[in-house]
Amino acid sequence: MSTAYDEIKTRxxxxxxALITPMHPDGKVDYKRLADLIxxxxxxxxxxxxxxxxxxxxxxxSMQEHSDVIRYFIKHVNGRVPVIAGxxxxxxxxxxxxxxxxxxxxxDCTLLVAPYYNKPPQEGLYQHYKAIAEAVDIPQMLxxxxxxxxxxxxxxxxxxxxxxxxxxxxxDATGSAxxxxxxxxxxxxxxxxxxxxxxxxxxxxxxGGKGNISVxxxxxxxxxxTVFSAALRGDFEAADSAHDVIKHLHRDLFLESNPIPVxxxxxxxxxxxxxxxxxxxxxxxxxxxxxxxxxxxxxxx
Length: 301
Hints:
The chain is of the alpha/beta class. The protein has one domain (about 5-235): Aldolase class I (TIM Barrel). It is about 45% helix and about 10% strand. The protein is built from 14 helices and 8 strands. Strands 7-6-5-4-3-2-1-8 form an 8-stranded parallel β-sheet, with helices on both faces. Helix 2 packs across helix 3, helix 4 packs parallel to helix 5 (about 120-135) and helix 13 packs across helix 14 (about 290-295). The longest helix is centred in the first third of the chain and has 15 residues, at about 65-75. The chain is globular. The mean pLDDT is about 95.
């Protein structure tokens, strides 16, 4: 395996954020706020930034907007931390195009969500990811989130894909630490196993996971960095202590479909304007008090 792929594996660890895409009230991308969020995340200790993933509303950005935001993101980060560009799609040709554009822009790795809605069989999933990996020479990360895509990448399929050199990691958002542990044991050092589920991420770290690509880190980056830096050191007493202050956020930030609650929370903290795209809507008023109380409890308001 090439040195470049080995290097990125060592950098995909710790506290990572699936960054929201800030928008103006009219739905246009707010690049000024995006730059501010990137700077803040890095200053607060986030180890790696995810651009235009599903939390970043990739499904409602046009192909051109998607690539434009990734290019802006990478240029502004300017090598300070690794950038994982979300380039997944349920159309293999579209995913290849987005992945190529992210590679051309200088992304460190791409994140490829399992094709949603189509419900491909396991062989279809294998051929989809294999085609992208062969078409674009960039480190690539699988993303398994069956609760959103209604398709589950089986362990057997992941094991097959792990034999492809530039498939270097998986973001496991199944919410099962036991399943993650089985995956870690099967993978060895072939690919990095990361959590994509805030509520179970620390449990996955206890059994060998390398980090967490987080929604909560959008509003609590310093706390999440403290938690997952301690976990990387193997100091789970310190990790648990820091986690106790914020772990309720992992529940409350999902009382509506992501990223509706976390965008409201970021707005309440003064980080973004009140912008989101249909078919998502702004957080209904009856949920405001719950999020406000969660922010106060986490010492964020």
